[in-house]
Amino acid sequence: MIFPLEDELMLISGTQSFLLVAKTRTRFALCIETQNDEYVQSVQPGDLVVVSAPEGGAIEPAIMLIELIRAYHVPLLALKKGHPGSKRISYVVSVAPEISTNCSIQRGTHPEQHLVCSSDELGGITLKGTGAGVELSPVPAEISLQRIKCWIKTEFS
Amino acid sequence: MDIDIPPDRVKPKDYRCNECSERFKGIGKNPICPSCQSEDVTEI
User: CA A9: distance to chain centroid?
Assistant: First the structure.
């Protein structure tokens, strides 16, 4: 199915976890930092940013992560395989034209952007950015889809 | 749980920016310089 999406966010909710999806607005160079190297991925408008919260939690950190990447182009950090900090990562993110969720990868340790770590219930979904929105395949029966609009507002006093 | 992702799944190519001379390892089509955002780059 294709979920119509422009500048909003798409929330894919399971019973205990969620994915938050957005499309990038501009072309930019995304730096991916690993223990020994730096890779530079070219991001095109309409590519996807997918934040996964395998154990659920608040949605606001996921929104912040998306905006840090698509608006501020902050680098991504990938831990080395087996890093003890992996278990403390509650939100992970990938950026690519097409991203698949996978429940069998170690969080935060793979620089490959075509995969994102997910819970079991949201594993096996492929998300693809299209001109009309985001294509999901397959669509698990137990999930719910919502469109979210949000603004980051700063007031100085 | 973990799965083995072959290390060659990330296949960067080496580039040099013709605008600012930055060297970088690029992934994907239409590489962009991370320093000056130029697309005027050459594979080296």
Answer: 11
Say if the ipTM goes beyond 0.85.
no
B2 touches chain A (CB under 8 A): yes
| B1, pLDDT greater than 80 | no
Contact A32 B12 (CB under 8 A): no
Quick one: pLDDT at residue A152? Answer: 81
Quote the domain boundaries for residue A76.
2-148
Starting at the edge strand found earlier in the chain, the sheet holding A115-117 runs: A2-4, A133-137, A126-129, A98-102, A115-117
Q: Which of A41, A59, A35 is nearest to B26 (CA)?
A: A41
Print the SS3 string covering A115-150.
EEECCCCCCCCEEEECCCEEEEECCCCCCEEEEECC
- A35–chain B Cβ distance below 8 A for any pair: no
Residue A16 or A132, more confident? A16
Task: Count up the domains in chain A and report the number.
Answer: 1
- The shortest C-alpha distance from B21 to chain A (Å) reads 15
